[in-house]
Amino acid sequence: MIRFIHSADWHLDSSFGPQRDAGKRRQELRQLPERLADYVNENGIGLVLLAGDLFDGGNVYRQTLEAMSSALGRMRAKVLIAPGNHDCWGPLWDQWQWPDNVYIFHESRVTTLTLGDLVFHGAAFTAAEQSRSLLSGFRAPEDGKLHIGLFHGEIAQESRYHPIRSADVAESGLAYLALGHIHKPGQAHFGGTLVAWPGCIEGRGFDETGEKGFYEGVISQEGKVSIEFVPFARRSYEILTVDVTGKDPRTAVEEALPENTQNDLYRILLTGETDRVDASAVENALRQRFYALEVRDQTRVPMKLWEKREEDSLRGAFLRRLWARMEEAETKEEQDTVTMAARFGLGALEHRDLG
Ligand SMILES: [Mn+2]
Fold first, then answer.
1. Distance from the CA of 186 to the center of ligand 1, in angstroms?
2. pTM
3. What is the DSSP letter of 149?
4. Which stretches within 115-214 are classed as H helix?
5. Who contacts 136 (Cβ-Cβ below 8 Å, separation ≥6)?
């Protein structure tokens, strides 16, 4: 029995864009290989399959390369790497002295590495794009050994990032096909082949929400491969929509929150109908419960508030003029602008803080 890890899309040295803690997040990501080395050694993992995009680009900090290289070398496991479109084979890989337990596929055609009864078939991106399907026509020999594929690429008919067709997988004779590239984890069976892509190991923004990690697998004595997902990200990005209709916004948010949010980055969208909401007050009140929090107001002024336009008062006159604008509004954006004007105006008329 062999235990293995299949991971991909670390995107080390990602910029993390304009986030407040971008530098710290970059630093945390750089510690990932060390954390993974600990996991490998503590869990008796003998094989590590890394399916590309480990670096975000070819221009990597020396510090990152050193951290990565020493962590891989510390793993008491054979480490196999198939470079992807972000970290394609080139000086980045070629001009670095990698530890002896690390093997890097470096050709843009399928090559083979045999380790005892296991045979690995893999390839590298050697440029930022690879639109040929390398598994097309591939067939592993029926030699009683277990055949495993390792590529950066995606299950697709056409793609600039190595399309792999499901029909080719079904014909491949591979027991397991380890892919990278798609940032959301997934798996499928085609013919006798289990194919999986673990997704990115750490979210980098609100377009990469939810649990992130890797697949841990077992190759049984009989040559059967099974995998399960292991959450491993330091932090996750979550978007939570909270309807605050008829509720105190802060209470509504607190009721909707899962228990432990301390390590995570949350974007909370306040929705529903209300005439008073102060997103930044909610944000300030709850900030301590998160690694990072942003609260956005997407609520609408309640219809009953518009009913006050019938009043013979300054408020009524104000609402009548805005209501006329609302009826003329042709887009959702125009309606939102009128709504915001109504909210601010009413707040001012009632001497409320405009927040
Ligand atoms: Mn990729």
1. 15
2. 0.84
3. E
4. 166-171
5. 165, 168
**Centre of ligand 1 from the C-alpha of residue 75, in Å:** 24
Report how far ligand 1's centroid is from the alpha carbon of 11 (Å). 9
Tell me the domains of the chain and their CATH numbers: 2-231 (3.60.21.10), 237-349 (no CATH)
Q: Is 101 helix (H, G, I), strand (E, B) or coil?
A: coil
Lowest mean pLDDT across 86-100, 130-144, 298-312: 298-312
How far, CA to CA in Å, does 53 sit from each of 8, 38, 81, 128, 204? Answer: 7, 21, 10, 11, 14
Say how many Å lie between the CA of residue 12 and the centre of ligand 1.
Answer: 13
Strand pairing partners for 147?
119
| Separation of CA 117 and ligand 1 centre (Å) | 30
The string of pLDDT tens digits covering residues 113-172 is 999 999 999 999 999 999 999 999 999 999 999 999 999 999 999 999 999 999 999 999
